[in-house]
Structures are given as C-alpha cells and as structure tokens.
Amino acid sequence: MTHNESGISNEEMVAAMKEGQMEYFEPLFYRFSPLIKKYMKDYFLEYVEFEDLMQEARLVMLDAVERYDSEKGMRFSGYYRLVLQHHIYGIIRKENAYRRKSDRRAVSFDQLLETSHSVQMKFVDFQTPEYLLTLRESYEDYVALLSSFEKEVYLLFIRGLSIKSIASNLNVEYVRVKNALERCRQKFNAIS
Q1: Can you list the domains of the chain with their CATH numbers?
Q2: Terminal CA-to-CA distance of the chain, rounded, Å?
Q3: Which residue of 6, 53, 69, 92 lies most exposed, with the fewest beta carbons within 10 A?
Q4: Which helix (DSSP H) or strand (DSSP E) does residue 26 occupy?
Q5: Rounded to 5 degrees, what are φ and ψ at 106?
Q6: Shortest CA distance to 61 belongs to which of 40, 82, 34, 92?
Q7: pTM to 2 decimals?
Q8: pLDDT at 64
Q9: Mean pLDDT of residues grouped by 10 in the chain (192 residues)?
C-alpha cells in the first residue's frame, strides 16, 4: 500500500470514499496531479485545455473509485493510471474523428457560390432594411451569450487577427483562444 505524509494509503482512502467519506477525494486527487500534468505533456490534446483535462481527470477518478476492486490484486495507483490513460486515448480518438469529419465536409466558398442559387439569393437579401434589422437584433442576442473572454477573442478575430495573434495580444495559450472561438461558433449556431 502506498502511504504519504498523512499515513493513509490510496487504497484506504478509496475504501473510505466508497463508504461515503468524500473528504478524502481532494487529497487523493492531489496525489495524482503530477501524473495528470505528465499526461498533458506526453499527449498532444489540441482541443483540451489544462483546466478541462483536470476536470476530466476528476470525473475519471470518481468513476475509478467507484469501480476499483482491491481483491483483483492491483493497487489503486496503477488502476487509476490505466483508466485515465484509456480516457485520454478516447479524447484523442474523438479529436481525430472531429478532424476527419471536418475534412470531409470542407467545401470552398467559391464552389458553394457557383453551385448554389440559394446562397446567391441570401446575399441579395442582406440589402433589405428588414433583414438588416433582424441581423442587428440577432447579433445583439449572440454577443449577450458570450463570456467576457469570448467577446474579447471574437472582437479581435472579426478584426482579422489570427488565433496566434489573439493569443499573443491577450497573453494566453493558443489552445485557449481556439477553444473560445469554437464556443463562439457553437453559440452562434445555436441562435441561427
């Protein structure tokens, strides 16, 4: 059994949590934070920020505590490491599927204009006062849905800045800006 400064092993903490003593969750999770940080460095997760991965790791730990069986001869540290690693593999598979899906759906804007009369008609509709009023109201509704960080990112993006430039201007990581733009897109799609 693995003991730390408090003298309580991982397995003892898991057993206590299974009995409803959830105050052991944070200390147990803290013991595994170096492992989570290591996995974040070892595996390139393009669409997952560190805070998101920490939340995922917490959920995985809750599940691991619930499913852990000490009778099977494996220590909890090895079991959690294995379950977390499999979860990260699942995230990587989803990211790869998302990329493949995006590539299959890609169509050039010029091709779309040439082949679709409805797109051409919609551009003509942009010029009517009614449409412009509706567009303005929709825009105000959309901006109201954005967090303050998403608004900052969105405003810089529509001014023509690249994701890399936005990250540099806001002094944040590239992936954080990319995730914010993805949330902006999702919120836009939700109201349109």
Answers
A1: 10-103 (1.10.1740), 109-191 (1.10.10.10)
A2: 56
A3: 69
A4: helix 25-31
A5: -65, 130
A6: 82
A7: 0.49
A8: 92
A9: 66 92 91 84 70 83 90 90 87 73 54 47 54 68 82 87 90 91 82 66
